[in-house]
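cache lookup: miss for this entity combination. No prior model stored, computing from scratch. Input as submitted by user K.M.:
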Amino acid sequence: MTGSPAAGLVRAWVDLYTRGLPAELRAARCDEVADDLWCEQAEAATLGRSAGVDMALRLLFGMPADITWRLAQTRPMPAETLNRRSSMNSRALGLLALAAGVTWAVWLSAFVAIGAEIWSGGVAPWSIVAIFLGGIGFPLSAIGLAYQVQDRLGWLSALGAVMMVIGALVAMTDSTGAAPAILLLLFPLGSAILLWEVSGTGFVSRVVPIAQAATAVALSIAGVVGLPLDGGPAERATGALIFAPFVLSWIVLGVSVARGVPQPESAGRGSPA
Amino acid sequence: MPLEVSILEAALELRSRGINEAHGFLLAKHIRDGKGARRLTAYGTLYKALDRLERAGYLASRWEDPQLAADDGRPRRRHYRITMSGEGAHADALEGKRESALPRSAAVQPS
C-alpha cells in the first residue's frame, strides 16, 4: 500500500519541504499527507486502477502551495510586532552596515558618472576609503549579527562567512587592480548564504539575502557571457545595476538593525495532540 | 467557489450525514465527488487551506488515537470538524458577504 513510485515521490517532496521545521510541525504534515496517500491508494485498489498519475498531478499542482506554506512557517514576524531590543552592539553593527552601504551607493554613482577617473587625482584616496569601508564594514556587520545568533546557525553560515571574507578581500585588492575579478562573486554569494541563515532566526528580513543573491547571480551571468562592467557609460551603468541590489540590501539591513535586534519567537503550531 | 468555502461546505454536508469529523482525504473526496471533478485537490493546496481555516478558527482538529491507526496498519489520522465560527463564515460566504474575503482576509491570517 505504500510502495508506489508516485507515493514515494510525494513522500520525498514532503520530507524535503518540511526539512528544518520544528519536529512536531514536520511530523504533523508528513503524517497527514501519508494518511492521504494511504487512503488514495486504498480507494484506487478498490476501484481496480492505479493512483500513480493522479498522485503525480496532485503533487505537481500543489507544489506552489507547499512552497508558500513552508515560507510562511519560517517567515520572520513583522517588525512592528516584534519586541526589538536595542543594544550598543546591534546599533553599532547596523550603523556600520548603513554607513558602508551609503558609501558604496555614492561611490557607484560616482563611478558611473566619471568612470576610471575615480581612481586618479584627488578622488582616488576617497575611492579607496569607500571600497575599504564596504570591504571591512559589510563582513563585520554580517558576522557580528551571526555571532549574536551563533547557537542557531550551522556549517552553511560558516561557509558563507568564509566566502564573504575572501570576496571582501578580493573586492578591496581588486580595487587596486590586482585580483581576479571572478573571485569578486564570493562577496555577494557568501554574504547571501550567511545572511539567509541569519534571516531564518528573524534577525533580518529575507529580502536582504535574496537581493544579495540576485547580485551574485547577475554577476555570474555577466562573467559567463563576458559582459564588461566598466569602460563606457553603458557598461558602467550595467555594472552599477548589478551591484545595486547588494548595496541597497546593506542599507536596508543597516536601518533595520540600527533600530534594534528583534527577538524572534519560536515557531511551531499545528502539532498533533 | 473558493476552496476554503468548499471545504467548509464539505464538512457541513458530512456532518449532516452523521460524520462529525473528517480527515483531509475524506474532505477532498467529498469535494471532488460533489463537483464531479476528475481529480482530488492537490496535496499542497488542500493542506494549506486546511491550515488556514484552522488558524482562522473555522475548523478545529485533533489527532486520532495512534493505536487505532496501528490496528488498521495505516498512518495516524488528523480529524477536522467545523466550528460555530466556521458555520457563520460559510453562511456569510454563501450570502456573498465574505466570498472574496474568506480565503485571504485578515481573519484567516495566522494570528
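stored under new cache key. Helices of chain B lie at 3-16, 24-35, 43-55, 66-72, 84-94.
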